[in-house]
Write a structure and sequence with these properties.
With about 260 residues, the protein is an alpha+beta fold. The strands form two sheets. Strands 2-1-8-7-6-5 form a six-stranded mixed β-sheet, with helices on one face. Strands 3-4 form a two-stranded antiparallel ribbon. It starts with a helix and ends with a strand.
Length: about 260
């Protein structure tokens, strides 16, 4: 009897060892976490780790280099009903405004503005919140190119003399004095043209409430080394979702002494 028990025990031990080995290997074979091998197999990227394959971040969900929200980033989890207004949206809106200015289409300008807030006009980059003219987009504004009234638009840089001009003359000198629809440089929420005046653009129109699109020419005559640059900045109020973008200011800027 003792010999028979010994024989049965010897027969049982190998099967027990095989079963234990199978259980220890099963997690790796089923794709469970295990320590990666330090020697990658032929053809495998040594920097990759199949066992530690956490999903990579989609670049389209990142903020772009200019710190503007990505066009694909929703303002809420319900992307079927709303999405966040983006820098691309505002840039597209600004392009339509510049095209309208090029054609002297003031009706389109009026339609793009807020009927209560109106549009502020500034001849230079330093915005004078007390003296700069703000015009409401009334029916009269659509025909303002034919208005013979001279308005007080502020003062000329350097001389300090008052700027008394009709809207048409102001347009030619302090709005569309260059063909900004063909500007060489365009930026969103970044000031390109800089001069001796203090630029208070983002103090008056902070980035968290407004977006500014600048159309810029770096200069025209090489002899003056860029001191003849011109910029046109369009300021938009951005609120809500689904395209609520309104024009709030048209700001002209140039080199000042």
């Amino acid at each position: 009897m003792r010999w028979m028990m010994i024989i049965m025990l010897i027969a049982w031990l190998p099967g027990c060892a095989w079963s234990a080995s199978e259980v220890l290997q099963q997690p790796a074979e089923a794709g469970q976490a295990s320590q990666p091998s330090s020697n990658p197999s032929p053809g495998q990227n040594p920097n990759s780790n199949a066992a530690n394959s956490s999903p990579t971040t989609n670049p389209t969900n990142q903020l772009n280099p200019n710190n503007h929200p990505n066009p694909d980033t929703p303002v809420s989890s319900d992307t079927s009903t709303s999405r966040q207004i983006t820098a691309d949206d505002v840039r597209a809106k600004a392009d339509t405004i510049v095209a309208a200015l090029q054609k002297k289409d003031m009706k389109t300008i009026a339609q793009a503005s807020d009927p209560k807030a109106g549009i502020r006009f500034s001849a230079y980059g330093h915005i004078d919140v007390k003296k700069d003219i703000t015009m409401l987009p009334t029916a009269k504004f659509a025909d303002i190119m034919g208005d013979s009234t001279e308005y007080d638009w502020g003062v000329y840089d350097g001389s300090g003399q008052p700027i008394h001009l009709t809207f048409k003359d102001y347009y030619s000198k302090f709005i569309y004095d260059q063909d900004f629809a063909k500007a060489k440089d365009v930026s969103v929420n970044q000031i390109i043209g800089k001069n001796t005046l203090v630029n208070n653009q983002f103090d008056v129109y902070p980035r968290d409430q407004f977006m500014t699109v600048e159309y810029h020419f770096p200069g025209f005559d090489p002899k003056v080394e860029g001191h003849d640059w011109r910029s046109l900045r369009l300021v938009f109020a951005v609120s809500g979702t689904n395209g609520n973008i309104t024009l709030r200011a048209i700001i002209h800027d140039q080199w000042t002494t």
